[in-house]
Amino acid sequence: MAARGAQIISIANQKGGVGKTTTTMNLGVALAEMNQRVLLIDGDPQANLTSYLGVTPGAPPYEDLRTLDEVYLSKRAWDDQMKSLYITACSSGVDLIASDKALAGVEYYLFSRADREVILARFLTALQKDYDFILIDTPPSLNLLTLNALSASRFVLIPVQAEFFSLEGIVKIREIVHEVHTRWNPKLEILGVLPTQYSQRRKLTQEVIQALQSELGPLLFESMIHDNASIAESSGHAQSVIHYNRSSKGAQDYLLAAQELVKRCRI
């Protein structure tokens, strides 16, 4: 897989609270445990993924670490010497391009650029040979940051809560993917839809899953992420659920989902 370059996957859904950051983090760690070289990119100005990984840009030992907003604003060509400025290795086994609140101001400066939707795509071209997977956490909105992530990606993974409004959100993200595919990135495809916060005890959940299966067919992941206390607890400890409590249902779910992700990328 490394010979053909990294599989770049955006974790995206316009709806908030569906577990995008949690999924980016835990799938990344699960892939790393499968001996894949993984880079995570925090593309959300809330910078929750950066915090989740225990990184605080500007504070020791990250005083000199540059963040994603500088990628968008810099006109300097990427080279190998710049990697140490932007990429930090995390104890969880993944690399990270961090973010902070400065990313929220980037859109204002991008509107005047003719290449504003494809800046991240060009940046990642120079990194593809170094990784097997690059996962991008995206904001819960359609903006230039999301468009850049989609324009840079080979695939989109859509996490959804098992609730009826999830179908509406999937329709919207599919429309966005179609537009990006048509205008900027003809290679972009939906990798699949991953149900999160799944509870077998709730009848509504079962009904929603049946509706998703009927609507999406093979796009729906066979794997599901159960509603599990260890997942929520792990974020508070700046750890993946896999490292926090490997025997938990949440950890096992993400390990299985990562295996399915790899298979889908190879189809």
Indicate the mean pLDDT. Answer: 90
How many beta strands in the DSSP annotation?
A: 7
Overall helicity? 40-55%
Number of helices: 12
Q: Describe the strand arrangement of the main beta sheet, using strand numbers.
A: 3-4-2-5-1-6-7
Q: For the terminal residues, how far apart are their CA atoms?
A: 12 Å
Radius of gyration: 18 Å
**Overall 3D shape:** globular
> Mind telling me which CATH architecture of one domain this is?
3-Layer(aba) Sandwich
Can you tag this structure with a few keywords?
alpha/beta; 267 residues; 7 strands
Structure write-up:
By secondary structure, the chain is α/β, with parallel strands linked by helices. It has a domain at 2-37 and 117-266: P-loop containing nucleotide triphosphate hydrolases (Rossmann fold), CATH 3.40.50. It has helices spanning 20-33, 48-52, 68-73, 83-86, 106-110, 119-125, 144-152, 165-183, 203-216, 229-236, 241-244, 249-266, and strands at 7-11, 38-42, 87-89, 95-97, 133-137, 155-161, 189-196. The protein has a seven-stranded mixed sheet with strand order 3-4-2-5-1-6-7, sandwiched between helices. α1 packs across α12 and α6 runs parallel beside α7 (144-152). The longest helix is centred in the middle third of the chain and has 19 residues, at 165-183. The model has no long low-confidence stretch (mean pLDDT 90).
Question: In a nutshell, what does this entry contain?
Answer:
The chain is an alpha/beta fold.
